[in-house]
Amino acid sequence: MIAGAQDGDPFIEFVGVKKRFGPKRIYEDLTLSIRRGETLCILGGSGTGKSVMLKLLIGLLKPDDGAILVEKQDVVPLDEDALLPVRRRISMLFQGGALFDSITVAENVAYPLREHFHMSDSEIAARVEERLEMVGLPGISEMKPDDLSGGMRKRVALARAIVADPEVVLYDEPTTGLDPVNTRRISELIRSVQQRLHVTSIVVTHDLGSAYMVADRLAMLHERRIAAVLPTAEFRRCPEPAIRDFVSAMEEQQP
Is residue 219 scored above 50 in pLDDT? Predict the structure, then answer.
């Protein structure tokens, strides 16, 4: 693995992780450290297991071997009850947004607060409106998700992801299906949220332009392991064949 130039104590670590689904091996020796407060983008071809990493971190999947550490605590052996304190520190923006269409925007954004915290209705309403303003959507609380554009739905989902002040935000293909204007808007919001709330962000994406825009470092998944972790500027000019070929292929696909 090619190490990045920056230093810092690891906040989240994948150590020697192995994972397979039936005969398909996803990871052979996945090892990666994420620093507190950084935005790390995970790149790789289709089927390399980018999104699987996020599901392993929050315990939706278990590795076959290896450790996944959050501030040195291995979350792999934890059962559902023991995982709850870890999950409260981590929020996820799902690829499709995963909004509930039958309830209002405000009720969607408020959902984590009502599930996990003891707050008054007025406190919840104020927090919801604050987060909607943060993603550029004030005044839409009473609308339903069906009334929103794709870009607006993604921003509402982001407001919900950050409403409970998580320490870590996971983004699973956050710009998929969006036009260039909304892709840029979501990328700017990822950076803004990281800076304003001081969260650690892990972004799984196939969008190289967005990755360059938001990332402090980029990690490349290749041949069932992390092939490189580099600051953005170094990643762009890295001579490693796997990275060079991936970057060239992705740049050819850009409009």
Answer: yes
Instruction: Name the nearest CA neighbour of 221 among 73, 19, 8, 74.
Output: 19
Please state, as a whole number, how many other Cβ atoms lie within 10 Å of the Cβ of residue 245. 12
* Pairing between β-strand 200-204 and β-strand 39-43 as defined by DSSP bridges: parallel
Q: What pLDDT sits at residue 199? A: 93
Which phi and psi (to 5°) does residue 231 adopt? -60, 155
DSSP bridge partners of 13: 33, 69
Rounded Cα distance between 244 and 238, Å, is 7
**Can you tell me the distance from the alpha carbon of 74 to that of 66, in angstroms, rounded to the nearest whole number?**
10
Distance CA(143)–CA(182), nearest Å, equals: 20
pTM of the model: 0.88
How high is the pLDDT of residue 254? 60
Listing DSSP states for 99-116 in one string gives: --TTS-HHHHHHHHHHHH
Q: Please provide the distance, in angstroms rounded to a whole number, between the alpha carbons at the two ends of the chain.
A: 31
